[in-house]
Amino acid sequence: MRRPRPAQKSPENGKRAPLAGRPFLVYTFLEQSKRRCAVKSKKKSWPARLAAVAFWLALWQWAAVAVGQEVFLVSPIRAAGTLLQLLPTGDFWARVAFSSGRILLGFGLGALCSVALAVGARLSRTVELLLDPVMQLVKATPVASFVILALVWVRGKDLSILISFLMAVPVLYSAVRTGIQSTDVQLLEMARVFRLPAGRRLRAIWLPAVLPAFREGCRTALGLCWKSGVAAEVIGLPDGSIGDALYRAKITLSTGDLFAWTFVIICLSALFERAFLALLGLAVRRVCGEGEP
Fold first, then answer.
1. Backbone angles phi and psi of 268, in degrees to 5
2. Radius of gyration of the chain from Cα atoms?
3. Which of 85, 201, 215, 258 is the Cys-Cys partner for 249 at CB 3.0 to 4.6 Å?
4. Contact indicator for 266, 122 with CB cutoff of 8 Å
5. Is there a contact between 214 and 172 (Cβ–Cβ < 8 Å)?
6. Which CATH class is domain 80-287?
7. What is the DSSP letter of 241?
């Protein structure tokens, strides 16, 4: 005759056993937090996108033919020809390097500063209260006002660094703050109970919560930095910049050059955005342990 199994003891008052008795839950929590670091890419319909681009290029060509004045509207074929003439010149690449370096430097400094300020606001309520009106003021002030004021403080060639910095800080500060506030309280409590090292808490809890919001903030901030940085160059007119080339094309009524440089700005913004986000995604996977056995 089979002996009956001994009755299992149930927790008192219907509650689960304490977490300390279930070490495998710690592993489960941390593995789930790892997965949240993974960046999911949406499938893109490239044929549909190319068809949309072709449609707008055809419409642009038709409008240019209808206007019949290149001073007012140049055709895409003419703009492409002007761009092909600019590409082999050393002046073109010197201007691209000049503007790209300064705008990206301003963005990088803004990213570092925004992370530090967001962490400070998380640790101190006083810091948060002091920073909130400043961030709202920076976001509400027009770029042109900042540019004109900044011309009093910095040289024209450094103007795009300051403006890009000012545009990046409030966006990334808000993004990091959102990520910090979305951190799972239960995971933080579990880490405190089990006395996880600070580095492990950062990798398993804080980074998975902050990095997705930071990534989206960078996507927005990079576009703002390029638009505001070039606008600052158009006003400040530093020699050897893309903004200076745009201004020269405008005063000489070289509409082909104007469209060509505008296309270059769009391409540079998209290129650096994709490159930075790809590097950020790689860093996320390395820091959060994705792909580890």
1. -65, -40
2. 26
3. 258
4. no
5. yes
6. mainly alpha
7. S
